[in-house]
Amino acid sequence: MDRLYYGGDYNPEHWSPEVWDEDLKLMAEASVSMVTVGIFSWAQVEPRPGEYDFGWFDTVMDKLAAGGVDACLATMTASPPPWLSQRHPEILPVRVDGTRLSAGARQQFCPSSPVYREHAARLVEQVATRYAGHPALKMWHIGNEFGCHIRACYCDVSAAAFRDWLRDRYQSIEALNAAWSTTFWSQRYGDWAEIEPPRVAPTFPNPAQQLDYHRFSSDASLGCYLTEREVLSRVTPGVPVTTNFVGLVQKALDWHSWTPHEDVVSLDSYPDPYDPRGHVEAAFAYDLVRSTKDGQPWLLLEQAPSAVNWRTRNSPKPPGAMRLGSWQAVARGAAAVLFFQWRQTAGGAEKFHSAMVPHGGRDTRAYREVADLGRELASVPQLAGSRVKADVAILHDWNSWWALELDSHPSDDLRQLDAHLAHYAPLFDANVTCDVVRPTRELSGYKLVVVPNLYLMDAGVAENLRSYVAGGGHLVVSFFSGIVDENDRAYLGGYPAPLRDVLGLKVDEFWPLPEGGSIGLSVDGTGASATIWSEWVETEGASVVATFGDGELAGRPGVTRNTFGDGVAWYLATRPDAATLRALLDRITAEAGVSPVLPGLPEGVQAVVRHGAEGQYLFLLNHGAEAVTVTLPSPAPDLLTDPGRPTEAVLLAPRGVAVLLGSFT
Amino acid sequence: MDRLYYGGDYNPEHWSPEVWDEDLKLMAEASVSMVTVGIFSWAQVEPRPGEYDFGWFDTVMDKLAAGGVDACLATMTASPPPWLSQRHPEILPVRVDGTRLSAGARQQFCPSSPVYREHAARLVEQVATRYAGHPALKMWHIGNEFGCHIRACYCDVSAAAFRDWLRDRYQSIEALNAAWSTTFWSQRYGDWAEIEPPRVAPTFPNPAQQLDYHRFSSDASLGCYLTEREVLSRVTPGVPVTTNFVGLVQKALDWHSWTPHEDVVSLDSYPDPYDPRGHVEAAFAYDLVRSTKDGQPWLLLEQAPSAVNWRTRNSPKPPGAMRLGSWQAVARGAAAVLFFQWRQTAGGAEKFHSAMVPHGGRDTRAYREVADLGRELASVPQLAGSRVKADVAILHDWNSWWALELDSHPSDDLRQLDAHLAHYAPLFDANVTCDVVRPTRELSGYKLVVVPNLYLMDAGVAENLRSYVAGGGHLVVSFFSGIVDENDRAYLGGYPAPLRDVLGLKVDEFWPLPEGGSIGLSVDGTGASATIWSEWVETEGASVVATFGDGELAGRPGVTRNTFGDGVAWYLATRPDAATLRALLDRITAEAGVSPVLPGLPEGVQAVVRHGAEGQYLFLLNHGAEAVTVTLPSPAPDLLTDPGRPTEAVLLAPRGVAVLLGSFT
Amino acid sequence: MDRLYYGGDYNPEHWSPEVWDEDLKLMAEASVSMVTVGIFSWAQVEPRPGEYDFGWFDTVMDKLAAGGVDACLATMTASPPPWLSQRHPEILPVRVDGTRLSAGARQQFCPSSPVYREHAARLVEQVATRYAGHPALKMWHIGNEFGCHIRACYCDVSAAAFRDWLRDRYQSIEALNAAWSTTFWSQRYGDWAEIEPPRVAPTFPNPAQQLDYHRFSSDASLGCYLTEREVLSRVTPGVPVTTNFVGLVQKALDWHSWTPHEDVVSLDSYPDPYDPRGHVEAAFAYDLVRSTKDGQPWLLLEQAPSAVNWRTRNSPKPPGAMRLGSWQAVARGAAAVLFFQWRQTAGGAEKFHSAMVPHGGRDTRAYREVADLGRELASVPQLAGSRVKADVAILHDWNSWWALELDSHPSDDLRQLDAHLAHYAPLFDANVTCDVVRPTRELSGYKLVVVPNLYLMDAGVAENLRSYVAGGGHLVVSFFSGIVDENDRAYLGGYPAPLRDVLGLKVDEFWPLPEGGSIGLSVDGTGASATIWSEWVETEGASVVATFGDGELAGRPGVTRNTFGDGVAWYLATRPDAATLRALLDRITAEAGVSPVLPGLPEGVQAVVRHGAEGQYLFLLNHGAEAVTVTLPSPAPDLLTDPGRPTEAVLLAPRGVAVLLGSFT
User: Fold this and answer.
1) Is B587 one of the annotated binding-site residues?
2) Any known ligand binding at C153?
3) According to its UniProt record, which residues of this chain constitute the active site (chains A, B, C) (predicted)?
4) pLDDT band at A665; cut points 50, 70, 90
5) pLDDT band for position A1 (cuts 50, 70, 90)
């Protein structure tokens, strides 16, 4: 990326051509440099099967080119026109209970449907051929928000595709029976034809079958993506390709299997403005999406200028909040700040979703903030190529997430995102920058690795962690990690069997807490509390850092520390309260030699550094309600206010932002 | 109506003929003058297709005639017999998710079903022909509680009928595409055949499609009604026709499109006895049903003598409560007080629904109160023709209600009935009589018009309000009114665009409150609070009456007042707490020259006046827990205690009632 | 039973033969004497239709015989293999809304399916023939947990079977119409073919139809059981047959119609370890299952060694709790203590269900406690044949339970188990031993009979209670008893009509309390409170023991006492708070001459006596958190600590147990 892109989804088909001219004028005023066009244009460009009407779209593309606005051109396949499902109702997705969904909203296709894929590929061939070489074409946007509404389809077409997928994976029915533990409950399969998706059953369906259906469903959507990508690579080989993941972190798709097939990764981000900590969740998502491409800049492809319309109650973003959140994305590696959408629609299901140009038009608070931010971002193009670096890695894996949240577990309170955020938030608050990486990744470059509830851990991952610690790494593992293998089969011999030696302990039994329950915790003699979980730990070499304070487990280990090889491995047998976990992680990071971006920052100030060719960019973002002054380690200019004059201290208003050029780490 | 009718649903088929004789004796004892008969008799009178058995019903009708009890004769089509759906399963209604419902309860027919309609019409022809001219026949009761359980059907028969209905409405598919904003999410239709009902879809279905499905579904039930009415008008041209709406206010049917086809309107009313304010909701429903026929007396066709059986927990009505509630209906214009049902059934789904003759028989509290009230009502026949008058109109519109409560809005907390009652209750408590009228109605006869959340407002309605205020009217508009047109398309140019000049302001952005949230409000410097909603208002001529007291909107307008033409228009940008709204409305009514029925009444005393040929009837109803004395403006006799002797003051026991003849307004 | 059996479900197919050898070694170590084998072996022994592979199972049976472990041999039909439903999808059960369930879990068969029954019978023939006379075969276990997941099936096969069942029951369609009160809502049937199961309907389905569907569904599962039993009785005539009921008390199956066909009755018991009163519910289930066979020893066929995995959150059993709960079962008549399951599975839906041998193996707390208890139970074989005796009977009837919890009742708060436990718990706490018996049973042997919410009461039961009281019995009847007959038709003439003379009162009207509501109660002038319900009682000879203290019913009777014949009948018109009900029942038991097992026991100590050939066994179980000392009426030896030495007092640690031999009653 050669600049910080700014813009949003542009759906000109909602408006008359006179409005298009006003659009281009306003885009210039707001420094818009990129729009995503055509996402829902299928029914307009192919009004009847095989009949195309691209004339109006040519006009739009030409106007964009003339206006100097780049097109992130959608393949237009996100939502098939009514004629497709009317002629081929078998493409409509089916729920787990057998309900076939209807057209009339969007995304109404079974991702395994060959009929859908053929029609989509035929359209993409048209679009790609027509706009190959068009001066506005900057990038391809395949589909839209894959898996957002249809996380899995349970139709008979999907069932057949699932059987093919399983045959590929397991080769023999005996291997599948072993992987799925089908001796349990008399589920042994004699033939592939006997296998169905995990539809609604009398009680808990086979967990390995459910886990494989998650994998299959992610791959089914990926299949749609790859079908289109194949066309684009052939017709327009040099144009980069992306698709937008649904944020925060999307459960349905295993990003790690997608991003190798993307030239740039993109994220949609919709933190809830009612949530005072929504920016922490957003930051986590940004760190993850950045890490899927090892730090390569990514695109914030969608965010809301103000309110959304799809929550039960939808708050606007207060004055300054949109700017603050946009800068946060840039601070954490974004190369583009784009919105859904350019102009607020008068009709349809998202007419109350805010837009860059609201129903009220140009004379609105929202538009004014949009235009101001556009100008501001355009003033710092040099940020585009710089990168974030981190000493701490948090492990995240979709296979484990899917497995962790299956039914029939010790406690339904174990939610992957809760676990991630519980461990991520104290590091965020301490301004310790983290990557969020796949567990199979080489880890030796990190000073600290945090493993929250990595329930499923195949042998390779366990070995990766072992050698990391043995080689001198610092490791934090939370409870209920390393419990099952890739087929959701428990490791025998004392939990967590593959890490017992690394952690220097075994867990005799899980003691999840009752609903809303808490348990006392004693850390160095100080009383604290913990929630969600406890367990009966027997140390085998580890030293006890905290003990449970009450109940049947009183006096037993709650937090331990073990040296293993040249490294150190910590274990959390419960979820300590936020303050206690913050203190523990402060101690652990200090021991690991991990430093915050800046020490001693006021509460609520976020600090991140991007490393560029000409120096380091320090982003300071004030999430607090009060103005604060940050003294810099050495004088540096604030690029947003006075790029030419170094300053010794920065005054940050509430929701204030500063971008300082200098050397900070 | 020449008298106050009294009685209830009579289902003689549950009992042997000996019981019928006892029934007639008890009806005489309880002064019963009308019963609704035959509602669920289809399976008895047509036990097999085309075979009729009316003999037993002849006997019942003859006994009624002999006993001087009028028959409100049902067309017997409310619940088809099992043989109909067994032979024609396609008549069974289908839920939005595709579940086909079963027989075994009641109302198991798709209202669009031609098979159902033909069988119903064939039966009505038989019934009407047989009882034309029967001395007991006083009135026809078509069907029963249309739309009570089946608010919409989503079967394929309905889909075809929906397409026909749309073709009638829009004439061209292009017009439909425009009205439904189908450019959004690639929903453009190329042909009528592609259109389906808004069944369960991957996410929010098209809102205009949903809105039209509400309209269509109301019309589908109306089609059933009109099919039967056609037979009755032909066979028994002089006999008035009614059908009973389900109270409180029924969402499924647009009463305003039904009542032109009814000779008398009827309402079922089941306020919850646990709810200390249930009578306010009931009053609102009574004012609405009365207003649909411009004040013509209406029938309270069903109420419970005591408990119902279909709530989660069902309280009986305490001693006196049934009488008080019955008199409230009369006070607000009812010409009949009827119950469901005469004699409590031993079996079936409503055996625990109270009846005029309970399981315990004649020696029960409920029966005694029923018989007492019958005698009391019979003593004041002169009330029957008198009418209620009101200076205040509240606007209610089904199209707007349906649209308001669609998904994907700024806040799901916006519920039409809540909005209505929030504004109606303070007027009720102040004993200001209201009509509840359609927005297209001529309004100049009213001194004040209140518009709670009239989200959908077509151009004609906006013009109606503008000319009303310009002509000197007083108007109160609450937030989120005038937002969309008849196709649920937002008006552009600053909310509420069609009323900005009338109100002297624009709304820049909606700020709905979080769940259970409240916001401070400062009215003339006094602190108050508000709930549900706030918004960013920019005045354009209006004066600010109250400002928000805290949060991001602190100091911005919360309540405004604007003069426009010869009138005044108030705007509520939030929902003030009850006391604050009461004070505001007291000020507004005073300014508009609206007076309470009687000034200075004790809290909890309801006062309404009916205007008759021989004078005014003042109803005083004590809803409070204490006895109170009401001093009259001039001496008047209480028709219920001593009709011959004027009194200067009335003592009302708790749940006490007085009906005074005199001149009060 | 000649001993106290100990063991659990054994599923060797999950493991390799080497593990089987370790299993037998550990079974010996843990004194295991019986295992339930083969429950889910169908897919292993019949991998393809008609092809059998019993070789591996022969090995297991031989090893068990060699190890001296008895086999409770399952008929292997609990969960059909995937090939069966793939070839015959019509065997898959269908939900009330029409959703057809899928294979992939367990119990995926319609109990009315002839295809399932034929395949099951064919398999049972194979199993029975093969293992007839095998030295390990001790008992047959038919199916498993009938009705656990599939409480009723609503498919078309079931519909046809239901029609046959109805034809048997009613003989004529006229009789069915009368029993089902089909004049209500026009539901009259002209032909059997018109009848469907009570599937989802527009509103409440016919209650008598629902009630009969409960009866039919219990009989449908019983039909499966009897189909298998017929084979076993023919092939292995001398071997006793059982099946395991799901505890606590299972609603789907009418145990009273099953137990005549069982040689021994069995129960699964899974009290929630989070629930400090879980043992009271368990005790109630034990007393009921024992009473179904008039005190014959029964089998605790399944319990968890520690945590289960199917609740939302699953607590382990703290140290000592499993032992305490096991002894409680023995105290209340069990002849076997068995677990699900022997060895914790690595995969499948129950891998986190605890087992006798956990994932962690032999060196675990759970295994140690299991092995200790095995040795302890083996030390007291003499307990096996002894029996519990009771002076108090609580009436329980499935027909009434089903009817009570149907929809459209005065209050949904009436739950049969809540009512039972409300009345049972104070007796349990007072150490008054109860039987829980069917209402048609001869009652004269009991000193006191308690009738909690026996809503449905046919004429025979009413007569049974009348003659019991007339003959000198003491009776306690709670509200909403004796309301309807066997067809759910209300008795007319004042509630509870069939018992009005016995109770000396009538109930004019039900006054259920609002959600979470309570009402004051005055007992002998002392203030108390009550919940759930109140009602308007008119005494007709009964004396008033307590009155309502507030609200509309203030001063009216809340609890009454009536002498009738030679006996006494109490009536509870509400549910008094626990302390008040305890005091009332203390007074009532004292009057009836009922004594606690031991007087003056410390709070939390459970005492039960089993009567054996050589004397009485007094079980003392400490459920409290503190150690307590119990002084015995006369010295007796504690069989668990020092069988040879009588002691005057027993010290019970928390969760402590003592079994004393002597004479105590």
Assistant:
1) no
2) yes
3) 145, 302
4) confident
5) low
Burial bucket for residue C603 (CB in 10 Å: 0-12, 13-18, 19+): exposed
Which chain C residue lies closest to A179 (C-alpha atoms)? C347
**What is the spatial distance between Cα A191 and Cα A206, in angstroms, rounded to a whole number?**
17
C191-212 pLDDT tens trace: 999 999 999 999 999 999 999 9
Annotation marks residue C591 as catalytic: no
Smallest CA-to-CA distance from A228 within A111, A94, A62 is with A111
Question: Is C151 flagged in the annotation as binding?
Answer: no
Q: A638: which 2 tokens?
A: 């604030």
Q: Which of B97, B204, B413 lies closest to A349 in CB terms?
A: B204
CA distance C14 to B641: 86
Given a contact cutoff of 8 angstroms between Cβ atoms, the answer to whether A521 and A528 are in contact is: yes
What is the ipTM, given to two decimal places?
Answer: 0.97
Contact C540, C564 (CB under 8 A): no
Q: Rounded to the nearest 5 degrees, what angle is found at the Cα of C101, between the Cα atoms of C97 and C103?
A: 180
- Using the beta-carbon criterion (under 8 Å), do B206 and A349 form an inter-chain contact? yes
Cα–Cα distance, B554 to A318 (Å, whole number): 12
Per-residue model confidence as pLDDT tens digits over A48-80: 999 999 999 999 999 999 999 999 999 999 999
Contacts of C413 in chain B (CB under 8 A): 313
CA atoms within 13 A on the CB side of C59: 12
C545-C549-C554 Cα angle (round to 5): 95
Cα–Cα distances (Å) from A511 to A550, B184, B231, C653, in that order, read 13, 51, 72, 23
| Chain C residue nearest residue B364, CA to CA | C508
How many residue pairs from chains B and C have C-beta atoms closer than 8 A?
A: 192
Neighbours of B448 (CB within 10 A): 26
Structure tokens that stand for B160 in this block = 């075809």
Which domains occur in chain B, in start order?
A: 1-30+264-385 (3.20.20.80), 33-54+64-242 (3.20.20.80), 392-592 (3.40.50.880), 605-662 (2.60.40.1180)
Whole-model pTM: value is 0.97
Nearest to A219 by CA among A269, A172, A195, A253: A253
Consecutive H or E run containing A512: strand A505-512
Give the single-character DSSP code of C484. B
Question: Distance (Å) from the C-alpha of residue C249 to the closest C-alpha of chain B?
Answer: 24
3-state secondary structure of A256: helix
User: CA distances (Å), C435 to each of C257, C284, C331, C394, in order?
Assistant: 18, 9, 14, 6
What element of type H or E holds C27? helix C17-29
Q: What's A97's DSSP letter? A: T
Query: Peptide bond preceding C240: is omega within 30 degrees of 0, i.e. cis?
Result: no
Which residue from C minimizes the CA distance to B45? C186
Query: By CA distance, what is B99's nearest residue in A?
Result: A99
Is the Cβ pair B82, C509 closer than 8 Å?
Answer: no
Best residue of B184, B206, B212 to probe chain A, by most A CBs closer than 10 Å: B184
| Amino acid identity, position B24 | L
CB contact under 8 A, B101 and C489: no
CA distance B85 to B107: 11
Instruction: Report cis status (omega within 30 of 0) of the bond before B341.
Output: yes
Peptide bond into C475 cis (omega under 30): no
Contact A540/A508 with Cβ under 8 angstroms? Answer: no
* In the predicted structure, residue C1 carries a pLDDT above the cut 90: no
A460/chain C closest Cα distance in angstroms = 19
Q: Is B453 annotated as a binding residue?
A: no
How many Å lie between the alpha carbon of C166 and the closest alpha carbon of chain B?
15
**Residue A506 and residue C360: Cβ atoms within 8 Å?**
yes
Span C114-156, pLDDT tens digits: 999 999 999 999 999 999 999 999 999 999 999 999 999 999 9
User: Does residue C217 sit in helix, strand or coil?
Assistant: helix
